[in-house]
Structure formats: structure tokens, C-alpha cells
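Researcher: Last one for today. Full complex below.
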Amino acid sequence: MGGGFVLVPLQVLWTDTPQRNANANSLVAIVPIAVAALPIYYFRKGSPQIDFHVALFLVIGSVVGAYVGARLLSRIPDRQLKVAVAILLGVAGFKELLFP
Amino acid sequence: MSWSDVVAIAGGLGAGFLSGTIGIGGGLLFVPTMTVGLRLSQAVAQGTSLVAIIPTAIVGGATHIWRRNVLLEPALLMGGGGVFGAVIGALVAVEVPGPWLARIWGGFLVFSAYRLAVQAIRPSQKTP
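Model: Here's the assembly. Have a good evening.
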């Protein structure tokens, strides 16, 4: 879990990648990672627990959201994008710290 | 189409949007959509989320490549490294002390958030 949450800050903080590129790179990198993780997850679990009906309807929404979000990205200034990422990481981080 | 299908589409829409803008897989919203919205178990939610992430990231990633937001070389290097990490992780992660792993992970996220916030406030003083 959390491929993007590692890839996005590492690129920006360590390699000085602009936030917009870092976010886009992360999403491209997630494709092979998720494809590799799926069979590992599938075969390691005794009984694979995937609800394909729910997955279908999630994907109907998410591909539209991803397309709109990706098109919108170039219009968001880098600084505001950074603030949004920082807030999201901060909220997720405090959640893990307080309710692990 | 039932009410729960509508909830799934709405949750998917939000997860996809975050995925496209922030660059995360979408699990952050996929999982609570299923556990809170559809009352599925955590195990089913995580397995289903992993499946749903793939087409979401393909569409978002392809749109980013088309819009020239992607620096292809680092993206491919990270993807390759991530695949390696996923295999290693699956092989070694047998018994991890759950709460402590979550706290270390949380600490990393909060620290990253702090550093990004500093960069956003003082863009001239970029860290090397």
C-alpha cells in the first residue's frame, strides 16, 4: 500500500522534481507496481478476497475522475499543488500515528 | 443498478480525481468507500482496491503522458524499482508488528508533509 505516498514526496524533496511532474510520474510508476502486486496478493492469500462487481463500479467512476484530474493538473500552480499534497500527507500521517 | 453501485461510482470518481491530480493510486479513498460506504470487510476492500487501482492509474498515467506532465525516465525507473520492492516486500513481510509499522509510516508521512509545506512557503530555499 501507499506507492504514491512514497514516490511523490521523495521525488520532490530528494531530486528537486517539480510537483506537477512528480505527481504525474508517480501515477505512471504505480501501473507496473500494482500489476506486479496483484498476482502476489492473489496467490499469497488462501482465498483471494476481491469483489469484482464493486471493482467494476469503482472503476467506472475512477477512470473518469483520473482523466479529469490528470487534465486539470497542468492548470494548478506548483505551489498550490504542493500545499494540497502536504495537507493530504499530513492528514494521512497523523491518522497512522494516532490510530495505528 | 443499485444504491450501492452509485456509492461505488461516486467513491471511484473522488478516488480517480485524487489519483489524477496528486499521483496516488486511489486506495486512500477506494478502501473507505467500501468499508464505510458499502460495509465490506477490510480484507475485501483492500483486495478490490488493488484491482481498481490498475485501470485508474493506466487512464490517469496515459493522460499525463499525453499532456506531457511525465518525465518518462524517472517514472519507468520508479516503476521498475517499485516492482522489485513489491516482490521483496511480499517475500520478507511475514510477521511485522502492525501498530509500530503504521507509526513509523505515519512519522514518515508527517515529516514529508512538513518538508513540502516548508518548500511551498519558501519556494526560493529549495532543498538539494
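The CA atoms of residues 25 and 54 of chain B lie 8 Å apart. The two ends of chain B are 52 Å apart (CA to CA).
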